[in-house]
Amino acid sequence: MDRIQISELITSRLEMKATELKSQFQSSSDKIGYFFVDYLLPNDLALELHNKFPSQEDMVLKKSLREHKNIAAQMDQYDPLLEEAIYAFQQSNILRAIKEITDIEALEPDAYLYAGGLSSMSQGQFLNPHLDNSHDKDRDRWRVLNLLYYVTPDWELQDGGHLEVWPEGLEGKQITIPSSFNRLVVMATHQESWHSVSPVVKNDSRKCISNYYFSENPLRESDRFHVTTFRGRPENKLTDKILQADSFLRTSIRKVFKKGIVKNPHVYKKGEDQT
Question: What pLDDT score does 237 carry?
Answer without folding.
Answer: 96
